[in-house]
Amino acid sequence: MRILRTTGRTAKSTATLLAQLERRGSVSLDTVLPTVRKILREVKTKGDLALLRYATKFDHLAPDTPLLVPAEETAAAWQALDPTLQRALQIAVKNIRSFAQKQLPKSWQAQKDGLTTGQLVRPIASVGCYVPGGRHPLPSTMLMTVIPAQVAGVPRIVVTSPNPAPETLATAHLLGITEFYRIGGAHAIAALAYGIASIPKVAKIVGPGNLYVTAAKREVSSDPVAPCAIDMLAGPTEIVVTSDLGRAEFMASDLVAQAEHDPEALAIFITTNETLAEAVLAETKLRAAQNPIAKESIRNNGYIFLASTPEEAHEITNRLAPEHLTVDSEADLAWVQNAGSIFIGEHSPQPMGDYISGPNHTLPTGAQATLRGGLSVNDYLKLITLQHYTPAALAAVGPHAIRLAQAEGLTAHAQAIEARTASSS
Question: Of the listed 323, 330, 388, 413, which one is catalytic?
Answer without folding.
Answer: 323
